[in-house]
């Protein structure tokens, strides 16, 4: 592995206050597709996900179920792990902030922070949002003026829920000292925050001035203790952000851990939702600057999945607390796992908020998977089996050099596909692959192999048509594999390309001319049976 470049990608670690839903799964899937793509593109990938277990919110969730926090977190772990397995998430590691490695790393961080001179003891007097685990100053809070039970309450400016007043002794991180350093860093690394328009939000937030951050708590104890002051536990975000380094060896002084850290850090991508962009693009970089560690290359912030409120007609963020979250199982029941992955990865523009609906899922599934990709595979494999005695045609000398409309498209695909995939633009990557899929379906209509097959004098022509179709399918299967891995393996297997399917190596797959001739073709069941409309 050592000769391959490292590619380290992370999801947020999710709070264990409720079961994972479509939104959590969406972010995890974005990372999974990138991890699979990078493995196939020759990187030594580490893909990390996990659970954020400390803090008030998790403690309260446990208490509401009559459980101690640790017991509660342990009970939630299978919900995450089982869902990730079910939707084909290929993470290499799963971190929990209650693990010993995180405890050690966080305590090590405290010592480094103390040495850095960016830590001081004081007292915090202000507002706190438990659902967001975030501090707010008097100026930031929203006062309720609505004629309902929240009148006169102080509300969270982000989520609108009531805030708690907190007064406690606390350690502070001198975030205010990092304003200029952060702005300089953004100037020097304009692609640090992606998509680009999110960088403007981050920059104007920092330009507006930074307040020191309370990073320990004394009014509550579900957290990692501060090593030099037993009364304090670590603020949940100060703990959580470090998970990205813990998982690659930070705070462990064994030689293996040091080598791993040197090889893996900094990460290439932290993929997060837009709600936690400030933590990742402002606080985390400042923490790393304070302790003299390198900053990650990119933070990719995706938008929210929204659903239409049937009463107001407005799109609203899908969340448990609004009671509008769709369970992943409902989508799996409708589309199957790979249809589910295809829809979320190729129909949802990754930087923006996206309204999702079952109607749209059905449309996309039927148009792209049932009628286009699935139909192409089924027609081409059936014709090969029918006209060539259950096999792919025997290939003649120089077949790969002969011009035809599909070869012309395939030759131009690889670079465009890679450009999209490299920047997490899976919608763009899908469009590129679908050009070849659609062209192949048109080619079937234009070349009418069923008519050609009737004339023995046109046997060579028939062979070429089928070969061109199968070769296009081979290429598309590889390019779609990061999104629908099982389907691609199945398609390649049906053309007796098991070895190729197993290597998941993208290098050179778009080169025209790698089909195997005269090998078994399996017709198999429809990959994506068409859905009859069943509006939900
Ligand atoms: O914030 N649409 O955890 P969290 C799309 N523990 N994505 C959504 C979504 C929606 N409607 N709802 C949630 C935390 N997400 C911290 C992170 S990291 C060091 C600590 C996704 O359980 C999105 O990626 O609240 C969002 O950023 C994440 O879940 C928040 O998960």
- Biggest beta sheet summary: 6 strands, parallel
What's the total helix number?
18
Share of β-strand residues: 15-25%
| CATH homologous superfamily identity of the domain at 357-509 | Isoleucyl-tRNA Synthetase, Domain 1
Number of strands: 18
CATH T-level fold name of the domain at 357-509 = Isoleucyl-tRNA Synthetase, Domain 1
CATH 2nd-level architecture of the domain at 357-509: Orthogonal Bundle
Kindly report how far apart the N and C termini lie.
48 Å
What binds here, in terms of ligands, is:
ligand ME8
Q: How confident is the prediction overall: mean pLDDT?
A: 93
Defining traits:
536 residues, alpha/beta, Isoleucyl-tRNA Synthetase, Domain 1, six-stranded parallel sheet, four-stranded antiparallel sheet, binds ligand ME8
In short:
The protein is α/β, with parallel strands linked by helices and 536 residues long. It contains 18 helices and 18 strands. It is elongated, with a radius of gyration of 27 Å.
Structural description of this entry:
The protein is of the alpha/beta class and 536 residues long. The protein has a domain at 357-509: Orthogonal Bundle (Isoleucyl-tRNA Synthetase, Domain 1), CATH 1.10.730.10. Helix content is 47%, strand content 16%. It has helices at residues 22-40, 56-64, 69-86, 100-116, 179-188, 196-207, 236-246, 255-264, 277-290, 328-346, 358-387, 405-411, 413-422, 426-447, 449-452, 459-480, 485-494, 498-503, and strands at residues 6-15, 44-52, 93-96, 119-129, 134-136, 142-143, 154-155, 164-173, 193-194, 213-214, 216-217, 225-226, 229-234, 269-273, 298-302, 305-308, 315-317, 354-355. Strands 3-2-1-14-15-9 form a 6-stranded parallel β-sheet, sandwiched between helices. A 4-stranded antiparallel β-sheet has the order 5-4-8-10. The longest helix has 30 residues, at 358-387. The structure holds ligand ME8. Ligand ME8 binds at residues 12-15, 23-24, 26-27, 52, 240-241, 243, 272-273, 275-276, 304-305, 317-319. It catalyses: tRNA(Met) + L-methionine + ATP = L-methionyl-tRNA(Met) + AMP + diphosphate. Its EC number is 6.1.1.10. Monomer.
């Amino acid at each position: 592995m050592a000769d391959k470049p490292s590619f380290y990608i992370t999801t947020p670690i999710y709070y264990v206050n409720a079961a994972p839903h479509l939104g959590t799964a969406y972010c995890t899937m974005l990372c999974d597709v990138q991890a699979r793509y990078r493995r196939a593109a020759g990187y030594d990938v580490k893909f990390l996900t996990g659970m954020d277990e400390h803090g008030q919110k998790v403690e309260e969730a446990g208490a509401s179920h009559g459980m101690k926090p640790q017991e509660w977190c342990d009970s939630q772990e299978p919900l995450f792990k089982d869902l990730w397995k079910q939707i084909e998430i290929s993470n290499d590691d799963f971190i929990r902030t209650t693990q010993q490695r995180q405890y050690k790393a966080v305590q090590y961080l405290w010592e480094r922070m103390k040495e850095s001179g960016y830590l001081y003891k004081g007292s915090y007097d202000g507002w706190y949002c438990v659902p967001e685990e975030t501090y707010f100053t008097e100026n930031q809070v929203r006062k309720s003026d609505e004629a309902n039970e929240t009148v006169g309450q102080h509300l969270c400016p982000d989520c609108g829920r009531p805030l708690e007043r907190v007064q406690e002794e606390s350690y502070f991180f001198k975030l205010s000292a990092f304003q200029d350093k952060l702005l300089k860093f953004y100037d020097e690394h304009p692609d640090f925050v992606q998509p680009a328009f999110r960088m403007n939000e981050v920059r104007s937030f920092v330009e507006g001035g930074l307040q020191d951050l309370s990073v320990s708590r004394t009014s509550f104890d579900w957290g990692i203790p501060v090593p030099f002051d037993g009364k304090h536990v670590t603020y949940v975000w100060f703990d959580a952000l470090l998970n990205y380094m813990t998982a690659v060896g930070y705070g462990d002084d064994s030689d293996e851990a040091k080598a791993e850290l040197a090889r893996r850090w900094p990460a290439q991508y932290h993929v997060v939702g837009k709600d936690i962009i400030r933590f990742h693009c402002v606080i985390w970089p400042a923490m790393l600057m304070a302790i003299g560690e390198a900053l990650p290359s990119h933070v990719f912030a995706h938008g929210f999945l929204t659903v239409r409120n049937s009463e107001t007609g407005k799109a609203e963020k899908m969340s448990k607390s609004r009671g509008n979250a769709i369970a992943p199982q409902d989508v799996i029941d409708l589309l199957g796992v790979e249809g589910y992955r295809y829809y979320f990865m190729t129909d949802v523009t990754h930087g923006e908020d996206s309204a999702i609906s079952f109607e749209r899922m059905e449309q996309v599934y039927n148009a792209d998977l049932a009628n286009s990709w699935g139909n192409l595979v089924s027609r081409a494999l059936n014709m090969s089996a029918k006209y060539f005695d259950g096999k792919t045609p025997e290939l003649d000398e120089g077949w790969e050099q002969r011009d035809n409309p599909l070869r012309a498209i395939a030759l131009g695909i690889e670079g465009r596909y890679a450009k999209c995939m490299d920047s997490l633009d899976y919608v763009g990557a899908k469009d590129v692959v679908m050009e070849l899929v659609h062209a192949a379906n048109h080619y079937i209509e234009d070349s009418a192999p069923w008519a050609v097959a009737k004339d023995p004098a046109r046997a060579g022509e028939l062979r070429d048509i089928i070969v061109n179709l199968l070769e296009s399918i081979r290429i598309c299967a590889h390019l779609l594999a990061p999104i629908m891995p099982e389907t691609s393996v199945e398609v390649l297997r049906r053309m007796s390309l098991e070895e190729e399917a197993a290597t998941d190596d993208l290098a050179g797959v778009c080169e025209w001319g790698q089909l195997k001739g005269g090998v078994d073709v399996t017709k198999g069941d429809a990959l994506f049976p068409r859905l009859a409309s069943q509006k939900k």
